[in-house]
Each structure stands twice: as C-alpha cells, then as structure tokens.
Amino acid sequence: MASQRDTLRVGAAVLGAVAVLAVVGRITSPEAPASRSQPTPTTTPAPPQQLTLPDRWATAQIEVGHGGGPLVFDAGSLWVGAWRDGQVVRVDPRSNRVVARFPAGGRNPAGMAVGAGTIWVVHSDTDEVVRLDPGTGRVVARIKLEPLPFEFAPGDRRFLPSLVAVGAGAGWVATGRGAVARIDLASNRVVAVIKLRPGSPAGIAVAARSVWVAAGGDGVARIEAATNRLLGTIGLDIYAERVAVGGGAIWVAGPTTDPIVEMAGAVARIDAATGRVREIVPTGLPIGLAAAASAVLVTEPDAVGGALECIQPGATPSGMTLQPALGELAVGGGAVWVADRRGSLVYRLDPDRLPC
Predict the structure, then answer these.
(1) What are the 10-residue block averages of pLDDT along the chain, 356 residues in total?
(2) pLDDT at 37
(3) Which of 137, 184, 246, 339 is least surrounded by Cβ atoms within 10 Å, i.e. has the fewest?
(4) What is the pLDDT of residue 14?
C-alpha cells in the first residue's frame, strides 16, 4: 500500500513549494528549505517585466504563448490551450520544451480535452467539435452539433458548446444552455442529447461510469453514461463552476452561496460511487482546480498576486500567497503544472523537490 507521503506528494506537497509570502489567518506557509545548489531550470525567453517563480520552486518555466485556455495532461504530454493565439500547444514533460503548436481547428476555441486518440476542441461560434491528430495537428473530424431539441429562447435552438470531456466510451459536450451531447467515437455523430437546467458550467468530467457537470447555482449534475439518463443534480452551497476527479472523489469548486461563510469560495468533495457530499471546505475564490491521488489543488486570487491551496479529505487546508498570480492547473507526468494567469508561462513543480 502506498504511504501517505506517496499518495499526497502531488497534492499537499505542492503547497509548501511555491510560497513566496506568508498568508495571514488560517492558511500557513512552511519555511523555505536551506539554500543549496539547484539545477538550472529549462527556460524559453519570457516577455520583459514578467514575474516568474523562483528557481528553487519551479524546476522549469516554459514559454507557451498567449494562453487563456485549459491545461490538460494526457497521452504522455501536457496540452495547453493558447486560445488568444488560436493554438493547441504540446509540451514534452521529459525535456520541458514545447514540441508542437497546432492550429485549434477554427476561430474562438473554447473547451479542450484529450482522449480516444485525439485532441478535442469545441468552437461555439460554429457549433462544432474538432478532433485533431495529436502527432500532426491534422483535423481528423469536424462534428456538427445540430440545433437543440428544445428552444432556449423563442426561435433560438443553437447549441453553443463550451466544454468537452472524453470517457466512458464517448465524447461529451456541454452548453450553458442546459444540455450535454453524447458523441459516438467511431462515427463522430451526436447520438444523444441530455437536457439539464440552463446555467453557465465551467467544468465537466467523467468518472465512476458517470458524467459530472458543474451546473452553477444548481450544484453538480450527474449523468449515467450507460443510459444517457440524468440521475439528478446534487445541491451544494456553491455556485459550481469547476469540477475535477481523482482518488474516488468528485471535487466541485466555485463561489460560495452560504451567507454565513466569510470566505469567497468553497470546494465540495463528493463520493464518486455514492454521490454523497462528504464535506464542503471554504476557500478563496477558485480559479484553477486539479485533483491528485487523495487531495485537490486550488489556485485563487489574492491581494498580493495569488494563492495556491491544498485540500485533503478531513484535514485543515494549507496554502500560501505567491507571485505571479497563477491560474489553470494540471497534474501528470510526475509533476504539477501551473499557468501564469497574466503572462505566457507554464511552470513545472516537481514533487520530489518539495517538502511534504
């Protein structure tokens, strides 16, 4: 059985690694390790005046271009949505270098996922999903999302996709208009549309034979993948905007709707098997969310720049303030990957060099 250190090293350990300034209140920062020689991080040129994490925390800083999109670790690589450049960027975790830049398959890309041998990018302006070959960037399929089977407004049935996930033998595309489309992997056709309540979801994930959609003020919606049936919506004291899966848990994050909570946001832990809410933890306002083996990482805004917080089941959260302000997160390849929210860098944090 893995030790607690092994299971949490890509989660809780990270929090001590990027501290620059101590947080007041309930969030505390561990002391910095004694000064010692460090390997020179692999870097590419950064824009002038851009703040960077200290070398002792980040083992690499990678220039990826103008981001704005998600970070996804899958198929042995880190994939970055450089949406302001209209590109998908591939980072090799062995060399910490950008090894490919692909056009995102159209204008105004939105959500991205990697699975079933392709990169999936949704385009709301054209109501389509584009599948890209991860080796060449070639478009292998353009999947048109037909009008919704109901009117969102009088005479308006456009799908307007915003999110995509791959799992349970299908592609799943969500829209803030209250629907999720199931796409058959072989035929690249929409085979089912599941109706939800309208909202502004910013997260979708597949786990435990279910599709989980962050459904704003309604909480998180659960769809049974085998039957395409909406099992229900789990109410939370959270305006659900983010969802991540890992360690048998569904983590849902967003602004809190509980009037007695002083913190701006919260993260809920849901048992993936039973759908029961195990705990809701007050946090800062979540921006990025990524699950590790038995913890979840959250990036938050802060008066100084930003904060990175770690939440473990049943434990007091730990974290610290930092500069620069960080945004999207991903875990994979033995590392934690964090995007600079205001710049063009992605940082690699190595758990082996971080205190736990």
Answers:
(1) 38 35 30 34 39 68 87 97 94 96 94 97 97 97 96 95 97 95 98 87 90 93 97 94 94 93 92 95 93 88 72 82 80 92 85 53
(2) 36
(3) 184
(4) 35
What is the model's pLDDT at position 352? 63
For domain 4-353, give its CATH number from 3.40.50.300, 3.40.190.10, 3.30.230.10, 2.130.10.10.
2.130.10.10
The tokens 């090293």 sit on which residue? 9
Residue type, 250: I
In sign, the C-alpha dihedral spanning 149, 169, 162, 217 is: positive
- Token readout for 133 is 């070959």
Instruction: Give me the sign of the Cα torsion angle 244, 340, 241, 204.
Output: negative
Coil/strand/helix, residue 214 = strand
Check residue 56 and give its pLDDT: 63
12 three-class SS: helix
Closest alpha carbon to 291 in 57, 7, 20: 7
3-state secondary structure 313-356: CCCCCEEEEECCCEEEEEEECCEEEEEECCCCEEEEECHHHCCC
**Which two structure tokens, joined as six digits, stand for 116?**
């079933």
Tokens 């690694």, located at residue: 17
